[in-house]
C-alpha cells in the first residue's frame, strides 16, 4: 500500500490523539481525591491493619453522620511510600493515618494541616497522656487526634522463670542476665532472650526502650547527639547487649535474623523466656487460640541499668487532616469520630480498638473504665499497664527530617555490637557522627 | 482535489519513519523520558521531605558521593558481590552446560530441573532461602545436624562473612539457569568435525576444551558476563528479603542503598545519582568485556 502525505497526516493525528488519551481517561476516572466527588464524601487512607474492622467502624460513622467515607487500606510495608507518592503526584486523601515518625516530614512536605482551634481539639489534648500530645505536636502546632499508642515493656514467661526458681521478673539488666543465665544453665532454654534485630524499615523500639528505661537519651532537647558525650546510658546499654550476646550468650544470636513476627511466634511457642515488646502483644501471647504460652506470659517494666524506675518508650499513631482537602468539615468530623471524644465525652473508637484488638489508648480516663479494666485483666496486669503509660515518653528526635536515616543507621550499628564487630564506645561515636553528618546534610 | 491526488507517494525513508513512529513514541514516553528525567532529578536537591529546599545543584550529588561513606561501603560490597556471583555463575554454568550438552538418560529431566530456579521471582527466591537458612527451623540446619556436621542449630546469616556468602549463593542459584541456556546454545553450534579433527591430532580432553570449546564459547560467554554483571550489580530483592543489607553493612549493595535512599528516605536527587552511577559502572564494564572478548572470539574462531 502506498502512503501519501494526507494519510501520514491522518496517522499523525491519531498519534496525537493517543498521546492525549491518558489525560482524557484520567478526567473520566472515578478519582475522588480531595473530596472531588462533589458529594462531600471523605477520602480516607490507612495502613491495612484490620481493614474489615476499620470499615465496620466507618460504616457506623456514615450511618450516624450521613457522611460517606471512601476508605482505602494500603499495605503497611509501603504505606509511607505510597502516601508520599500520592501527595507528590496530587490526589492524596482527605484524612489519613500518620505515624509519629512521619509527622515532621509530612508537615514539612505540606501534606498536613494543623488542627488547632478546631472544635474539641483542646479537650482531646487535655484528656490524653502528655507523651502522646507531644508526639502529635510539631513546632508548637497540633496535627493529629490519637489512633492508638503503646509503650514498651519486658515480656516474660512466668512458668519458665518459676521453673528456674524466680518468683519476680528482673528489675535491672544485671538481674535479667542472671535470670537468663540460670535458665540457660538449667537447660531450660539455650538462649532465653530473643529480640527482633534484623534490618527492616520499622523502628527498633526495644533499643530506645532500654535507653529510656535507664533514664538515658540519645539526644538533648535541641536534637543534638549526647550519646557520646554527656549521656553514657546508651554506651552502657550497648555494652550490656554485647555481653549478653557474646559472653553469657543468653541473648539469641539468631536475633539478627529475626523480624518482629518470628519473635512473637517464638514467644508463643515457649522458645524464649524474655523479650522486649509492645504491651498489646500480650493479648496475642495470652490467647489460647494463638499461643501455647497462653496464661504464662506477663509484662513488667523494662529493666534498667540501676534497677530503678525511669521510663520507657512510647509510640503514637494518629489521624491527620490533609492540607489540601476540599471537604475539611466532613474530614474533621471523621477525625473526631475516630480519634476524638463523642457527644458523651468518651472516645468511642479508642475504646472500640482496645476491646477488639487490645490496642493501647491515649486517653487517661479509659484506664479507669470498668469494661476496659475487665478486658485488660484477661491478658495483663492493669496496674503495670497503667504505670507503663504514665512513665512512657516519645523519642525527642521525631521532629527532625533526618530521623529515618538516623534510625536506619542505628540498626546497623546495634547489629555490629550484637555480632561483636563493633565495640560500644565506637558504636556511640559512630551514632553521634551519623547524627552530625545528617544534621549538616539537612541544614 | 486533483492537486492533492497528484501528490507523489512517500519515499521509503518517510514510510519507515511513519510505520515506526508509534513504537518510537511509546519507547520515548516509557523508556527515554523516565531515563532522561531521572538524570535531571539527579542534578537537583530533591527530597520529598523538604519540598521547599528543592533546587538545581548541578553535579553536587555526584561530587558528594566521593565522601559518602555509605556509598563507598556499598560500592565495595557490590564489587565483591559481583566478583563472587559472577565467578560462581560462570564456573557452575559452564560445568552444567557441558554436562547437559552430552547425551545421556534423564538429560531432559535434568535440563528441566536446572531451568526451574529461573522461573522463580527474586522475592520468592529470597523467601525460600530465608526458610532454608532459618536459625531455628531451617532445612540447612536440619540437614547438617543429621549428617553430624553441627551439634546445635546455627544462625547462618548473623556473621558478616556468612551473610555475604549465603546471599551470594542464593543469587547465583536464581540466575544460574539463564547462563546455562546461553552457554548450552553456544555449545550446540560447535561443529563436531572440529572435535574429530582435534582427536585425530591427538588432542586430549583438556586440550579439546581449551582449543576448541572455549574459543567458540567466547561470544556466548560475553553475553553471560555482561548480563550477569548487570544482574549482580542490580541485585536487590533476594538480598532485601534475606538480610535487609545486614548484619551492619555486610550485604548493603549499591542497589539496596539506592532503593532505601529513594523509597525510605525519599531523597530522589541522591537516589537518582546512585542509579546513574550503577548505570555508568555497568556500561564501562560491558564495554571492557566487549573490548576483551568480542574481537578475540572473532580472531580465534
From TrEMBL, chain A:
InterPro entries: Bact_solute-bd_prot1, SBP, TAT_signal. Gene3D superfamilies: Periplasmic binding protein-like II (3.40.190.10). The keyword Signal applies. The lineage of its organism: Bacteria, Bacillati, Actinomycetota, Actinomycetes, Propionibacteriales. Transmembrane segments: none annotated. Residues 1-26 form the signal peptide. It comes from the Bacteria. It comes from Kribbella albertanoniae. This is Extracellular solute-binding protein. Keywords: Signal.
TrEMBL record, chain B:
Its main location: membrane. The keyword Membrane applies. It is a multi-pass membrane protein. Keywords: Cell membrane, Membrane, Transmembrane, Transmembrane helix, Transport. One of its GO terms (cellular component) is plasma membrane. GO terms for biological process: transmembrane transport. Belongs to the binding-protein-dependent transport system permease family. SUPFAM superfamilies: MetI-like (SSF161098). It comes from Kribbella albertanoniae. It is found in: Cell membrane. InterPro entries: MetI-like, MetI-like_sf. This is Sugar ABC transporter permease. The chain crosses the membrane at residues 20-43, 79-100, 106-129, 150-170, 176-195, 216-236, 273-294. Residues 75-289 form the ABC transmembrane type-1 domain.
Amino acid at each position: 500500500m502506498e502512503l501519501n502525505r494526507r494519510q501520514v497526516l491522518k496517522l499523525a493525528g491519531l498519534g496525537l490523539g493517543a498521546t492525549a488519551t491518558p489525560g482524557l481517561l484520567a478526567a473520566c476516572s472515578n478519582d475522588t481525591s480531595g473530596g472531588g466527588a462533589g458529594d462531600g464524601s471523605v477520602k480516607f487512607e490507612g495502613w491495612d491493619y484490620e481493614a474489615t474492622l476499620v470499615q465496620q467502624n466507618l460504616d457506623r460513622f456514615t450511618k450516624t453522620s450521613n457522611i460517606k467515607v471512601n476508605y482505602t487500606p494500603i499495605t503497611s510495608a509501603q504505606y509511607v511510600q505510597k502516601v508520599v507518592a500520592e501527595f507528590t503526584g496530587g490526589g492524596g486523601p482527605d484524612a489519613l493515618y500518620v505515624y509519629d515518625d512521619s509527622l515532621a516530614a509530612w508537615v514539612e512536605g505540606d501534606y498536613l494541616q494543623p488542627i488547632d482551634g478546631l472544635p474539641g481539639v483542646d479537650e482531646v489534648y487535655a484528656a490524653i497522656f502528655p507523651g502522646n500530645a507531644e508526639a502529635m505536636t510539631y513546632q508548637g502546632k497540633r496535627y493529629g487526634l490519637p489512633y492508638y499508642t503503646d509503650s514498651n515493656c519486658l515480656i516474660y514467661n512466668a512458668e519458665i522463670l518459676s521453673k528456674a526458681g524466680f518468683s519476680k521478673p528482673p528489675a535491672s539488666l544485671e538481674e535479667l542476665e542472671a535470670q537468663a543465665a540460670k535458665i540457660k544453665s538449667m537447660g531450660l532454654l539455650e538462649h532465653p532472650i530473643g529480640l527482633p534485630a534484623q534490618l527492616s524499615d520499622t523502628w527498633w523500639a526495644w533499643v530506645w526502650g532500654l535507653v529510656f528505661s535507664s533514664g538515658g537519651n540519645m539526644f538533648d532537647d535541641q536534637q543534638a547527639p549526647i550519646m557520646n558525650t554527656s549521656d553514657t546510658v546508651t554506651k552502657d546499654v550497648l555494652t550490656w547487649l554485647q555481653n549478653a550476646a557474646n559472653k553469657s550468650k543468653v541473648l539469641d544470636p539468631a536475633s539478627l535474623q529475626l523480624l518482629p513476627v518470628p519473635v512473637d511466634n517464638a514467644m508463643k511457642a515457649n522458645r524464649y523466656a524474655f523479650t522486649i515488646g509492645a504491651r498489646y502483644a500480650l493479648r496475642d501471647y495470652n490467647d489460647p487460640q494463638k499461643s501455647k504460652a497462653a496464661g504464662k506470659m506477663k509484662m513488667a517494666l523494662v529493666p534498667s541499668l540501676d534497677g530503678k524506675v525511669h521510663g520507657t518508650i512510647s509510640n503514637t499513631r494518629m489521624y491527620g487532616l490533609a492540607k489540601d482537602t476540599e471537604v475539611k468539615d466532613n474530614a474533621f468530623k471523621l477525625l473526631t469520630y475516630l480519634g476524638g471524644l463523642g457527644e458523651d465525652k468518651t472516645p468511642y473508637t479508642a475504646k472500640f480498638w482496645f476491646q477488639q484488638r487490645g490496642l493501647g489508648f491515649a486517653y487517661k480516663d479509659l484506664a479507669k473504665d470498668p469494661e476496659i479494666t475487665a478486658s485488660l485483666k484477661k491478658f495483663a496486669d492493669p496496674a503495670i499497664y497503667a504505670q507503663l503509660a504514665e512513665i512512657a515518653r516519645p523519642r525527642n528526635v521525631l521532629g527532625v527530617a533526618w530521623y529515618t536515616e538516623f534510625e536506619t543507621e542505628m540498626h546497623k550499628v546495634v547489629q555490629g555490637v550484637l555480632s561483636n564487630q563493633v565495640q560500644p564506645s565506637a558504636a556511640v561515636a559512630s551514632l553521634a557522627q551519623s547524627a552530625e553528618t545528617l544534621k549538616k546534610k539537612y541544614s | 482535489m486533483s492537486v492533492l491526488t497528484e501528490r507523489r507517494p512517500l519515499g521509503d525513508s518517510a514510510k519507515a519513519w511513519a510505520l515506526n513512529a508509534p513504537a518510537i513514541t511509546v519507547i520515548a514516553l516509557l523508556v527515554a523520558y523516565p531515563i532522561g528525567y531521572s538524570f535531571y532529578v539527579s542534578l537537583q536537591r530533591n527530597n520529598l521531605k523538604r519540598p521547599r529546599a528543592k533546587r538545581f545543584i548541578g553535579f553536587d550529588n555526584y561530587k558528594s558521593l566521593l565522601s559518602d561513606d555509605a556509598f563507598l561501603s556499598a560500592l565495595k560490597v557490590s564489587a565483591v558481590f559481583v566478583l563472587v556471583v559472577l565467578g560462581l555463575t560462570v564456573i557452575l554454568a559452564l560445568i552444567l552446560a557441558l554436562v547437559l550438552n552430552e547425551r545421556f538418560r534423564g538429560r531432559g529431566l535434568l535440563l528441566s530441573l536446572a531451568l526451574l530456579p529461573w522461573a522463580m521471582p527474586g522475592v520468592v527466591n529470597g523467601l525460600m532461602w530465608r526458610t532454608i537458612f532459618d536459625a531455628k527451623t531451617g532445612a540447612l540446619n536440619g540437614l547438617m545436624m543429621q549428617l553430624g556436621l553441627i551439634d546445635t542449630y546455627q544462625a547462618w546469616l548473623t556473621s558478616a562473612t556468612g551473610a555475604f556468602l549465603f546471599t551470594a549463593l542464593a543469587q547465583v542459584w536464581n540466575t544460574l539457569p539463564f547462563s546455562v541456556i546461553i552457554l548450552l546454545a553456544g555449545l550446540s553450534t560447535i561443529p563436531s568435525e572440529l572435535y574429530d579433527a582435534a582427536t585425530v591430532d591427538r588432542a586430549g580432553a583438556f586440550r579439546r576444551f581449551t582449543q576448541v570449546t572455549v574459543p567458540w564459547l567466547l561470544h556466548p560467554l560475553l553475553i553471560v558476563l555482561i548480563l550477569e554483571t548487570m544482574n549482580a550489580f542490580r541485585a536487590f530483592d533476594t538480598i532485601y528479603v534475606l538480610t535487609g543489607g545486614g548484619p551492619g553493612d555486610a550485604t548493603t549493595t549499591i542497589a539496596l542503598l539506592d532503593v532505601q535512599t529513594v523509597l525510605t528516605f525519599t531523597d530522589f536527587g541522591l537516589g537518582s545519582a546512585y542509579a546513574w552511577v550503577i548505570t555508568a559502572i555497568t556500561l564501562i564494564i560491558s564495554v571492557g568485556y566487549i573490548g576483551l572478548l568480542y574481537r578475540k572470539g572473532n580472531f580465534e574462531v
